[in-house]
Structure formats: C-alpha cells, structure tokens
Write a structure and sequence with these properties.
With about 270 residues, the protein is α+β, with helices and mostly antiparallel strands. It has 2 domains: about 1-115, L-fuculose-1-phosphate Aldolase (3-Layer(aba) Sandwich), CATH 3.40.225; about 120-273, Class II aldolase/adducin N-terminal domain (L-fuculose-1-phosphate Aldolase, 3-Layer(aba) Sandwich), CATH 3.40.225.10. About 40% of the residues lie in helices and about 15% in strands. It contains 11 helices and 9 strands. It has helices at about 10-25, 40-45, 80-85, 85-90, 120-130, 145-155, 160-170, 170-175, 190-200, 220-245, 255-260, and strands spanning about 35-40, 55-60, 70-75, 90-95, 100-110, 140, 180, 205-210, 215-220. The chain has a 9-stranded mixed β-sheet with strand order 2-5-4-3-1-6-9-8-7, with helices on both faces. Helix 5 (about 120-130) runs parallel beside helix 9 (about 190-200), helix 6 packs across helix 10 and helix 7 (about 160-170) crosses helix 10. The protein binds 1,3-dihydroxyacetonephosphate (13P) and zinc ion. 1,3-dihydroxyacetonephosphate (13P) binds next to loops.
Length: about 270
C-alpha cells in the first residue's frame, strides 16, 4: 500500500545528503555531476503506486538488460546544490520498460525535466558492473577538482595514474585495488562515451574522463562517495606534493605488496613492479 510520504523515504534522504555533500566538496558546480541508484520494488511500493506512470521518457540506447529495474536519478541541468530543498524537481524515479527503449516516470522531474544527459554512461555502467558484482547499485559522476587537474599535468597512462594515486595515501590501494581506468577525451552524453566507460568498468570501479571528471560505481551511495573521495584525496595530496617542491620519498612497491597482503586485497595484475 502506497501510503507513506516519499519525501521521507530513506533513499530520497540519502540522495539529498549525498548531493549536498558532493556540492560542498566543490565537485558539482552548477549542474555538474549526476547519480543513478537502483531501488528495489519492495523499497518503493510503500511510497508509490507502481502502476501510475506519469510520463514515458524515450531512450537513445538499448537498456533492455535493465528491463523492469527501478532507479532514482538526478535530473539533467539540475544543480546538486538544490536537490535538498526540492527533491521532487531535481530527482526522478524511473522504471526501464520491457523493450529497453523508454522509461516509465513514476515520481519526480515535476517541472517537466528529464534524467541526466549522462544516462547512457550510467546505464551501460550498471549493465557492466552487475555482471561482475550483482550487488552494485550506484553509479556516480562528478568533477572532482584535483583528479580533474591531474588529467592536464600527469600522464594519462592508467597504470601510471593508478600507481601515483596508490602512492599518495596508504589507504588508496586498500580502497581501489583494481585501480583507475582512464578514457581518451570523448564528447559527454553520447553512447560512445557510455560504451567506453562501461568497458573500463568491467575491471575497475573508478574511471577518469580526462579534462572533465570521474565516474565511480559501488553498492551504496556512501561507499561510492567514499571511493571517489579516496581517489580525490590522493590526487589532492599529489597536488600538494608538487606545490611543496616535488616528491622526495614515497611508498615502495614492496610497501604496497605488504599492504595488499595485510588487507587481503589483490593489486591489479601488472601494476606493481
Ligand atoms: P547533467 O546536468 O545532464 O546531469 O550533466 C552534467 C554533467 O556533469 C555532464 O557531464
Ligand atoms: Zn560532467
């Protein structure tokens, strides 16, 4: 029975808190960034009549592998800054139609809005991650400042990019042992960047879009935020080392191997010497 107030639903509150937090970190200026988060039917049916479709939204790609799944998604052109005060216009809850070429809008986007323009990257990443981790629920994109800056000053070789982030904080390797994928520059919002992102996401939960931002995937909002936060912290430390005159000493590959053994993680093959 859909008799509860959706504005008090835990998943709406989590989206409000996460978008506000990301905005406060300076990673989501204006409409920058977007989030998609898989919800279960059982989480929704107390709040919404799931047969009441307010609008159909066409898709420019095939999402049939996600048919029947429910998502809460930030709106295109909407500001993370404003989600907290008006979730019903800045967020939407959608269900992927059986044929995968349209969405049923069940709640939100109240001013006629649409889901993020980055939906191809989000949905293709969900498809990709669900194949390797059935518990993956969240895809998150933002313009994390120091990671973005490093794409101008540091090598875009993903092994080198991963290694420097692992070296900048002892926690990095433990949090993202699979490393960070790096794409070439591609026009955002396209199926092409979606396919390229999803391909990298098969083996890594973090993907850099040079001169733009970062994608993260994980099992809940907190954990996915924490993943991006850890990589961004490493990038910030790298930035500070350059301001302080450069790196004089760092974690050795043996240190990193010992760390991986102590925390029972496996560093991406071939990334340690
Ligand atoms: P949207 O406003 O469509 O979500 O796009 C923001 C963005 O960061 C594009 O990469
Ligand atoms: Zn962006």
């Amino acid at each position: 029975m859909a008799n509860k107030n959706i504005l008090e639903a835990p998943f709406v509150n989590e989206m409000k808190k996460t978008t506000q937090n990301m905005y406060q970190h300076g990673w989501d200026e204006r409409n920058g960034g977007n989030i998609s988060y898989i919800l279960n039917e059982s989480e929704l049916e107390d709040y919404l009549d799931l047969s009441d479709v307010t609008r159909e939204i066409p898709l420019i790609f095939d999402a049939s592998e996600l048919a029947g799944k429910y998502f809460i998604v930030t709106g295109t052109g909407k500001y993370f800054k404003n989600v907290e005060e008006a979730p019903e216009t800045n967020l939407g809850i959608v269900r992927v139609q059986e044929k995968g070429h349209a969405l049923d809008l069940l709640w939100g986007y109240e001013d006629g809005g649409l889901p993020t323009s980055e939906l191809p990257s989000h949905f293709m990443t969900h498809i990709s991650r669900l194949k390797v981790d059935p518990e993956n629920k969240v895809v998150m994109h933002c313009h994390a400042t120091n990671l973005l800056a490093m794409t101008f000053t540091f090598s875009l070789d993903e092994r080198l990019f991963t290694r420097i982030l692992w070296q900048m904080c002892t926690e990095s390797l433990v949090v993202f042992p699979d490393g960070i994928g790096v794409l070439p520059w591609i026009i955002p919002g396209t199926n092409e960047i979606g396919e390229a992102t999803a391909e990298k996401m098969r083996t890594s939960r973090l993907v850099i879009w040079p001169f733009h931002g970062v994608y993260g995937a994980g099992k809940n909002l907190d954990e996915t935020f924490g993943l991006i936060e850890t990589a961004e912290k490493a990038a910030q430390v790298y930035t500070l080392t350059q301001c302080q005159g450069g790196i004089k000493q760092t974690l050795t590959d043996q240190n990193l191997r010992d760390l991986a053994a102590a925390f029972h993680v496996t560093a991406k093959a071939g990334y340690l010497e």
